[in-house]
Amino acid sequence: MGSTYRPLTKDEALHLNRWQLFDRARQEQDRWARRRRRVADDGQAELNFRALCYDLLGVDDTAADFDTALADTRRRATVAYLNSRVDGSPPRPPRRVQLRRAAGFRLPPGVKVVSRPGRYGNPFNAGPRAHDVWLFDMHLARRRARPYYNDLWPYPSDQEIRADLAGWDLACWCPLTDEPGAHCHADVLLRLANHSYWPNVWPDAWPPGWTGQRPAPDSR
């Protein structure tokens, strides 16, 4: 991160679900391990974050090794527990968020950005947008049977997508719509990452309105 990085606070953690908090805890532990290799650190910020995990995730605070205890807690967690909100509010499925350049806009907690040029951006950018989303969806489907497709357009594997994005809201620049189907490549990622956990919201097949056919040339 950089000099502006600061650890997650408890107030921020209360806006997450436990999928997101476990993921953030793993990232924090990786960060502290790298930091210990670079500089001498009193570790107080790390201790504060561990206390947050003991409190909000139920990690065993008597275990000798925190990393192992965190991994064991995550492995035993049920899907219902992972989907539950830390603040106790009703669980909700992950959703797409639209990025904006408006003054004062800030991403809400629990969001990962999947726009270009990031790791999860859509590699297809020939336009129009509906066609690029269709190409992206077809690429992910075809590479499962023909791995050489990924040599042409390298992209994280299905396993990496599920591990990194399950439970998270995803943000891209595409406009939001109430129409069914995929209107942004983030919709494709949401379905792939979450259909096992929210099958009524993100089914294994697209609902009516998304036929999987090449969009008309003037589709926007």
Structural description of this entry:
This protein is mainly α. The protein has two domains: 10-83; 96-194, no CATH class. Helix content is 43%, strand content 5%. It contains nine helices and three strands; from the N terminus they run αααααββαααβα. The protein has helices spanning 10-13, 18-38, 44-57, 66-76, 79-83, 129-145, 149-152, 158-165, 185-194; strands spanning 96-98, 111-113, 169-172. A three-stranded parallel beta sheet has the order 1-3-2, with helices on one face. The longest helix has 21 residues, at 18-38. The model has no long low-confidence stretch (mean pLDDT 81).
Summarize the structure.
The chain has 220 residues and is mainly alpha-helical. 43% of the residues lie in helices and 5% in strands. α2 runs antiparallel to α3 and α8 packs across α9 (185-194).
Topology:
Elements lengths: L9 H4 L4 H21 L5 H14 L8 H11 L2 H5 L12 E3 L12 E3 L15 H17 L3 H4 L5 H8 L3 E4 L12 H10 L26
Parallel strand pairs: 1-3, 2-3
Helix pairs in contact: 2-3, 8-9
Task: Label the structural class.
Answer: mainly alpha
Q: Could you tell me the number of beta strands? A: 3
Helix percent reads 40-55%
Order of the strands making up the biggest sheet: 1-3-2
Q: How is the main sheet built?
A: 3 strands, parallel
First and last CA, distance = 36 Å
Give the C-alpha Rg: 19 Å
Number of helical regions: 9
Number of domains: 2
Strand content: under 5%
- Order of SSEs: HHHHHEEHHHEH
Principal-axis shape equals globular
Which regions are unreliable across 5 or more consecutive residues at pLDDT < 50?
none
Give the averaged pLDDT, no decimals: 81
